Structures are given as structure tokens and as C-alpha cells.
Amino acid sequence: MAGVTSLILIGNSHYKEGGIRAGAIVQLEEGGSRPHFNVALILPDWEKQTGFKASNYFIMIPTIKNMVDDAIVFIAYALLGHKEICGMITPYIKRFNPQSGDDRLDKPRVEMYDIPLTIRNEMYQILNSQSGLPKFTFCCFEQSSLLPTLSHLKDYLFECEVLKSTFIRDKSRRGSLDAAWADRGDLI
After folding, report:
1. pTM value?
2. Ramachandran region of residue 141, left (φ > 0), alpha (ψ -120 to 50) or beta?
């Protein structure tokens, strides 16, 4: 079973206090067959804020080398309805299980490796120069595959913030039933 290793909050900065007023949340799930992005939550006023009716019935399987770039493409497509990105991705969308008749099992998806590198690079370039995007806050848990590509955010013109794990307390799953708690990091 997959677990969430990163959350991306999409919204606007508070005009006085900073932080983020999130209208949508995207999650990266890993540990199953392949990592993938999906929309975890869309607040009711998202369409009023963005002018786009987003759907949570879409997943993206990202590339490893450009995972953060693929997350931005996913958000531009699934949550913002960016016309150029939508036009470039649409030919590569597949149905996972078209015979099921159940939307929960038949989520449309795109595998970024199926899109030629030249087209992927063009999408990244379009979004690199886009200044009207909302604020993104990346919340990455330890061992998230998104961590190695976060440095790509320096290439983008939108407002963003990155949060990483600073303190972890977990119980060792190895060995006996009397596993001890282990702390890593510091709270101060």
C-alpha cells in the first residue's frame, strides 16, 4: 500500500502574515507500484478563485529526474487548466481500466515518460517563465522522491515555500515486539 511522502498546497499568500491560504492540495504517493501525483483536496471556492473547475479524477506518474517540474505541470493541468499545458498533455492521457465503469477505478492518467523529452522540456520552459501562477508550498517528508529535485524551484518565477522534516519520532518496525521509540532531529 502506498503512503503519502509529499503534500503540495496551492493558493495565495496572506497579504500580511505570509504562510498560505490553500485552495487545493496535491499529494505524492509512493511505496506502491509507482510514485504518482493526485489531487487530495479542492476547496469549494477554488473555481471562483481560479476560474477553472478542477477535477480530482486524474493522476500523473512523474519522471524521477524532473519530479518537481512534473508536479508543476500536473498542477497547471489538473487544477489551473493552463491552456498550453492542457493542449500538450491531452494526447498522452490514458484510461487505466476503461471497462470498469467506475470512475474511482478508471481515473485518467498520464505517464510523463510517455511524453517525448522535447515536449516535456517545452512544458517546463513555458511554466518557468510563467509569473501569474499561485503560491506553492511543498511539504516533504523524509525519504520523499521529490526532495532531490527541489532545487529546480529556483528556475521558476512563482512564489513558493519548502518545508522538510526537522523532527521524527517513530517506532522501529524491525526485530521484536518490544521495539523502542527512536527520535531523529530536533524541535528547536
Report:
1. 0.87
2. beta
